[in-house]
Amino acid sequence: MATSSALAGDKTIHAPDERASTFTAIQSSSNLSTLKASSTMANSNEVHGTSSELLFPKIGMAFKSEEDAYEFYNEYAGKIGFSIRKSHSKLRPDKSVYQKHIVCSNEGERGTHSKHDTLKQNAATRSSCDARIQFSITREGVWTVQKVVLEHNHYLASPDKRHMLRSQRRFVESDKLVIGHMREAGLKPAQVFKFFKQWYGGPQHVPFLRVDSNNYIGRERKKYLDVNDAQTMLEFLKNKQLEDPSFVYAIQLDEQDCRIANFFWADGQSIMDYACFGDALSFDTTFQTNKFEMPFAPLLGTNHHKQTILFGAALLFDETTDSFIWLFNTFLTAMSGKRPVTIFTDQCAAMAKAIDKVFPGTKHRLCLWHIYQNAAKHLSHVISNHPRFLADFKRVVYLENSVAYFEKKWQELLITYDLVENSWIQTLYGLREKWAAVYRNDSFSADMTSTQRSEGMNNVFKKQFRKKLCLSELVVEYEKCAASLRENELDADFKSRKSKLVPFVRNLPMLKTTAESYTRRIYTDFEEEFKQQHLVKCEIVSTVGTVRTYKVMAMQFEDDALVTFNHENVTISCSCRKYESKGLLCKHALRVFNINEVITLPSQYILHRWT
Questions:
Q1: CA-to-CA distance for 226 and 292, rounded, in angstroms?
Q2: Which residues have C-beta within 8 Å of that of residue 542, sequence separation ≥ 6?
Q3: What is the rounded distance in angstroms from the CA atom of residue 190 to the CA atom of residue 197?
Q4: What is the pairing mode between strands 561-566 and 571-574?
């Protein structure tokens, strides 16, 4: 306990004359009954004025209301260093109050539990302190001080701790509103209180403590209590359908106890987005963001600005093949039976079986971000001893030249870092057709092979989703994420329509056409590829009728490609298959167009999803 605290009753607290003449006097109610409502009122200026002079409670003081009486005594208590609480009342036959006690919070003694013994008791806060103020209340509502006891039998709070006293702490509605908005914005409880410390100019000026803020936040969350969580969520979902008739959700119940096992939902905007951009899908179950530790599984895609979009989300009871089959079938139904061309997932055998069953024609690819994370886990000894390993590993993963070239470089990597016998590497190699770039180009991926998308969304969900969210809260937080992503898309749409990027060669027809057709983000990628054509050379290999075949070679790297061009119908294809996988023509094809004087990009090569 701080040595600066003063023991209650110490004469340094009160003026001796006031104590002797007024505060120790005990007057009977009969002596005070002659006080009339016309007694001098303690006005708000006296009680709450700016003067630092302490106003002591005196017998005969009168107040217009219970609130004024309480505030006066509480202000006095705050300046002295103790906390108060309302105590017992006496009622007239008509149930109106004629007497009220407001006491020191240390009044009385701690009671014992009526039903059981408490194993561990909290620290004692009651000390049978007699300090109090007693009011008589007229039928007109005038509160008059009838009795005062000032002496305390416990230490009083020192000035630097008086703001911590319970009766000195309070929440006003404006603070509650601010806390609500801050929580909706995703701020953590500690960040909320830090804001108030800065706002009020220091913790001693904040009218509540960190624990009060946390308790208030906790009380607000109790609207999502465990026992009512499923019902609350169902009511929320029904309201969502009233707002958005296209909103869909599906719940699978456990057969034994009828609790929620698996849960999927998607709003109308997600369904429309999937209709436009559902050719490539990313599915990730690595987020555990709820108090039930159920895997949270968002279904992601990419829009015409290469921004992440959400097609829906699910909560799964477990990561078994049956759960995944239920989810994929439910998703397929919600999306009118449209299957993705390519789906990216983490390395999960149960998920792979479900994809083969529900999406038989879909290409299954492994997300490179998860592969790199697993590499860091399983090959940590290699990474710590060889700082260059990860860079070399990624370089081989992204090789697109040919299968033979990939195999050659892969073996060189294993020999260099002594990984020929490593079991994790062997397992990964067995799945190479699902992750190696040289195998991935046989299906459209919307350029989702980059690890940045998964890593970025992982960070977004970790930041937005506080731990131990219940079902209803998680759906609400998911909606906020979706709304934020859609705001980004609207912003990019506005910029693309308001102004077009200026080509680096302004009057070149091919660049001018594509700048007008593509979104700004896609045109930037196309222009970069267009520039790269000047770093390759090509030679004709064969001519059969209207079809010419070219060998296109990089000037510095082993990056050969075969390009077939039909000059009659202006169709072109390249062995690198960039157009087939990403929807943009490669530098090899653009080089062949150039030497054949094709100055405008044929419309069939401007993919609609990128416009």
A1: 10
A2: 548, 549
A3: 11
A4: antiparallel
| Residues 82 and 105: beta-carbon distance below 8 Å | yes
For 112, what's the count of Cα atoms within 13 Å in the CB-facing half-sphere? 5
Both tokens of residue 311? 């097609």
Q: How confident is the model at residue 3, as a pLDDT?
A: 35
Distance CA 274, CA 280 (A): 9
Please provide residue 568's backbone torsions phi and psi, each rounded to the nearest 5 degrees: -80, -50
Opening angle at CA 520, ends 514 and 523, nearest 5 = 40
Q: Which residues contact 380 (CB under 8 A, 6 or more apart)?
A: none
Q: What is the structure's pLDDT at 284?
A: 79
Per-residue pLDDT reduced to its tens digit, 412-451: 999 999 999 999 999 999 999 998 888 888 889 998 865 5
Look up tokens 């989810």; give the residue: 327
Query: What is the rounded CA–CA span in Å between residue 74 and residue 93?
Result: 30
pLDDT tens, 161-189?
A: 888 888 888 888 888 889 888 877 767 78
Q: Report, as ranges of residue numbers, the positions in the chain whose pLDDT lies below 50.
A: 1-51, 224-227, 290-291
Closest to 577 in 3D by CA, of 586, 590, 569: 586
Count of residues for the chain? 611
- Strands 143-149 vs 132-137: parallel, antiparallel or unpaired: antiparallel
Contact 107, 131 (CB under 8 A): yes
Residue 153 CB neighbour total at 10 angstroms: 14
Cα 492 to Cα 307, 446, 495, 514: the distances in Å are 9, 18, 5, 17
Residue type (1 letter), 59: I
Task: Note whether 303 and 273 are within 8 A (CB).
Answer: yes
CA distances from 33 to 42, 92, 144, 145, 176 (A): 18, 15, 10, 11, 43
Residue 183's Cβ-side half-sphere holds a number of Cα atoms within 13 Å equal to 19
Q: What is the pLDDT of residue 547?
A: 96
Token readout for 368 is: 């490179």
Q: How far apart are CA 526 and CA 198, in angstroms?
A: 48
